[in-house]
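User: Here's a structure from my thesis project, written as structure tokens. My advisor, Dr. K., wants to see whether a designed sequence matches the one we expressed. Can you design one independently, without my sequence as a hint?
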């Protein structure tokens, strides 16, 4: 069985003791960066490792970067090895924000050549609602054998985005809320508004009223 997009709580719960499945907790708060790791130590899905958005999944901020630059992929590879990730693993990532943070590790792993990664649908909150097991026990470190096969065609730098928009060769989607897109509210970034030419498709529009991802109609 291979999951490459989403995985349900029921499916994950049947694989908690499966050595070929590996879980990563990506809970994080932009307003309180330490909150995710603190929550992880209080309780998490059994066997889950913890990935910090700032420390593990992003490079340090520089004068010429945005808020969360892409990580040093050599450093992230070392992290994945330390977490025990190998090519054989089905990786499952989760957060408590409907995949807003877990989705970053999902994308990073795929960009590094590991397609067997899925986001926990309904996130950790649904896991708790269903009464699935949680623990305070930290997993024992087991070194993996992860190899990075980086596909740098999966992202564009600012100049390529600017040129692509000018030539009408790309469509740029801004997944923030309409209030932030319009510049009426900006709790995080120093400058309000959006990139000229971007279109707004809020992340929340991908979710139903219970926080599960909508399924495509086939």
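Assistant: Designed independently from the structure alone:
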């Amino acid at each position: 069985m291979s999951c490459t997009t989403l995985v349900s709580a029921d499916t994950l719960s049947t694989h908690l003791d499966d050595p070929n499945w590996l879980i990563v907790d990506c809970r994080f708060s932009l307003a309180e960066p330490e909150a995710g790791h603190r929550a992880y130590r209080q309780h998490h899905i059994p066997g889950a490792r913890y990935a910090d958005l700032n420390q593990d999944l992003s490079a340090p901020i520089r004068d010429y970067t945005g808020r969360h630059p892409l990580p040093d992929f050599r450093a992230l590879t070392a992290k994945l090895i330390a977490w025990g990730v190998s090519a054989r693993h089905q990786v499952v990532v989760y957060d408590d924000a409907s995949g807003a943070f877990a989705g970053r590790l999902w994308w990073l792993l795929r960009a590094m050549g590991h397609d067997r990664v899925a986001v926990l649908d309904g996130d950790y909150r649904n896991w708790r609602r269903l009464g699935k097991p949680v623990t305070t026990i930290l997993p024992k470190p087991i070194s993996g054998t992860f190899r990075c096969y980086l596909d740098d065609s999966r992202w564009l730098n600012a100049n390529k985005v600017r040129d692509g928009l000018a030539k009408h060769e790309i469509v740029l989607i801004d997944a923030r809320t309409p209030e932030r897109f319009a510049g009426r509210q900006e709790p995080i970034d120093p400058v309000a508004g959006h990139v000229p030419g971007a279109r707004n498709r809020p992340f929340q529009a991908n979710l139903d009223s219970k926080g599960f991802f909508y399924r495509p109609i086939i």
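When you compare it with your expressed construct, this may help: The chain has seven helices and seven strands.
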